[in-house]
Every structure is written in C-alpha cells, then in structure tokens.
Amino acid sequence: MSDYVNLKLEKRGHTAVLTLSNPPANTWTAESLKSLARLVRDLEADRQIYALVITGEGSKFFSAGADLKLFADGDKAVAREMARRFGEAFETLSAFRGVSIAAINGYAMGGGLECALACDIRIAEEQAQLALPEAGVGLLPCAGGTQNLPWLVGEGWAKRMILCGERVDAATARAIGLVEQVVPTGGALEAALQLAAKVANQSPSSVTACKALIQGARANPLKQILPVERESFIDLFDTQDQKEGVGAFLQKRKPEWRNG
Asked: Are residues 190 and 213 in the same domain?
C-alpha cells in the first residue's frame, strides 16, 4: 500500500505489520505522521485485523524521531504543525481497538520512542538504545512522552531520561518496565508476531473492551471505573463473540471469532 508515506504495510492473517521506512534513521515527517493516523483508521475498518506490529526498516534504527532540520530556523508554525501531527498520529495509534506491539529493532529516540510508548506492548532487541533527548536540544517530548513514560517506569526514571537525558539500553529498559521483553539481535519482529498470534486466540470484542478499561485506569478513579467494568462485561452479551466463545468452550472446539 504505497499511498502511506514512508510506511510499508503487510497483512499476515489477523496481524498487520507496519514497517517505518524513511532511511537512514526512519525519521518522522508531517506527511508520514498524517499517513500513520490514516493507516490506523483504515485498520480499524478491517474487522479481520486483530493486532498491529510496528518495526523499523533496516538493522540500526526503529526510529530516530523527527528530523531536527525541521526546527532549525525556529519557525513556530512548523513546530505547531509537527506537534499537532505527532499528537494526532500517536493518540490514534494508542486508541487502536486491537493490540499494538512495537518491535524495537534498534535506536528508538525522541518521537521514535514515543511511537513505541503509544503501543500496548514493547519488545526490544538486545542492542537497542532508547531515549527522549529533546531537552538536550532545547525542545521537549510533545508526542506523549512526558505522560506515557512516567506511567510505565515511574516518575524517577522518567525524570532521569527526560530531564537528565539518560539513554537506556534494552536490559535497563526491561528492568524498569519500559519494555516487556528483550530478544537477541534480529529477533524482535518474530517475537512480536508470535505474541500477535496469541491475540488471535482471544475474542476481538473482549480485547477491545479490556483495552479500553485498562487504559481508562490512567485517568479515572477506581470507584468510577469499576462500575464501567461491570457494565462492559454485560455489554459483551450483545456480541456474537460472547456466544461463540462460551459455546466453543462447552463444545470443546476452537472458537471462530467474528469480531462483532
């Protein structure tokens, strides 16, 4: 699907594989960010897609974020446009109804790491390096980094990475909860595909409801979200997947999900 700028999309069964493709560092542009938001919306409309795996082209970079040349002349209009594009793209990615998995195959810097942070799960290759270095060039992470990073790793490590410019390797990222799995060099995509295959065993309707509830914990008090959890459970009884799932279990067969 070449109409997505600097993005390559392949569908493998119920999994969409998105490769960031803007060599040499897979940097983001306004057009590629716009394409990402549209691509995710297109996947939303494809009821046969249950998981999205994102990786970088080549063996060195997942993504180095935005090209700093864009901000060299201090044009605030350009800055505002890029900030808006980053926000729209990664917020759309975060809201994807299925499971999104970042297969971090190299450097994930700035907006590259923020893309991974917008995903549900992160798998990093052992040689990967992760950082939010924006403050070192007079900027700040504007695509969710200041909010998503502390949610995952806690305020202390978020401050080390953002305020002190500390870069972490894959092992450290795993230890602090920034990534959920570390694999050998070259293994991130395969590991992500294996995890995505597990997603296909789950009811797509249930996954969508569960994801919304898990993410809702960030912004809602427990007393407020628990009644929503119960109502979401009841709402699933309006879906074909609920009937199919229970029926398949009782009949000792594999369910055939309809995503509806």
From this structure: no
